[in-house]
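Think of the structure tokens as a kind of shorthand, similar to the way a musician reads notation: each symbol stands for something richer, in this case the local conformation of the backbone. In the example below we present two proteins back to back. Begin with the first one, reading the sequence and then the tokens, and try to describe in your own words what changes along the chain.
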Amino acid sequence: MLSEFDWLRRCDTGAELLATLQYFDEHPGLLPGGDEIGMPHSAFGGPCRRCWIYPRISTDKGELYCQFCSEILARAEKLYQLSRRSVIIWGFVNRLPKHLTGKVAEEDPLLFGRYVHDENKFLAVMHRYRLKTWLKEIVIYYGSQIKGIFQIFPPIVYKKKLSMGDILCRASYHDVLFAPTDQLMIRFYSSPLQLIRPHLRDREGMLTFQVSEFLNLMETASIYKTLLRPEEQEMVKELLNIGDPAEQRFYWGRLQGFLSQKAKDMLEAWKMRRWPKSRIQLLYELINYVEFSTTD
């Protein structure tokens, strides 16, 4: 019989992951499957084409999946848009937050789904705009009591050579290698495929942060998103990528005429023209994970 994590590793996309998490939340302690396995793969039939273990619903030529896989795929079709707006946290900590061990709807309404692997590891899926709020609650309620690492990454939206299950296995592999023991750290991936070769991102200082540092970066992105309209954000980004300093100064001066006074004061105080390219890239990645700031 497959465990819950075995079923999660069989997910190809984020929508399938959400569907599986929701199924297990609705049926706690009930693992699908059974003792019966499917017939050997042949030209005339075989096991379920998704899990490759359990028998198909029927022996008809059109049936390809077992009962559980068929239900997950049907649910996933309705969760595609939700998965596109989601972010995943794989945590390896010294103690689990208490609100991860109860029902999602009752204990943590910010979550779309969650899975507790053991006493130290968990998986949580939420709307990406709720990430900052969720991390703040962890810091406020638990402070320095929780130590370890949160790996944060978006789901795979479309079927690719690497599946969502492959990415989860890679995250589980990294947590043992990189989890600190004296503080809570964040490893942020803007793409799930970055978990395959994280050293490229780590080399540019865009991967690992203390939780307080990461929250400050998210707050910076929120203020930036609030004070600059989307077209202004693109103008600033294009300008900061100009290699010629003289040309950059010329266009920077012209840009000031398009911006509000608050936006100009912000750019001047932050001295964004002196930022390294990696910091600018990280800012624009985090814009997709924050809501508008309420700070005047």
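Once you have a description of the first chain, move to the second and do the same.
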Amino acid sequence: MSLEKLLEEYLNLLLKYFKYDLEIFENPWMYIPLLIPAFLYLIFFIFKWSVLTAPIWIPIRMCLKGFERILKK
């Protein structure tokens, strides 16, 4: 499997999950009982997307930490 195909599949997966999350947030039952379900799902949403996007932000963060160490010396 080529890198382009792998990247395309990963982005399609992220898009599919994001559309699903939007459908969940659009449901009226999320807002009727004092926003409690919406708040709890928002916490889950943040955790879920930090895990799903980890292959993107972890290498960037590691590079930035390396540059920071170089600049401090």
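Compare your description with these statements about the second chain. The chain has three helices and no strands.
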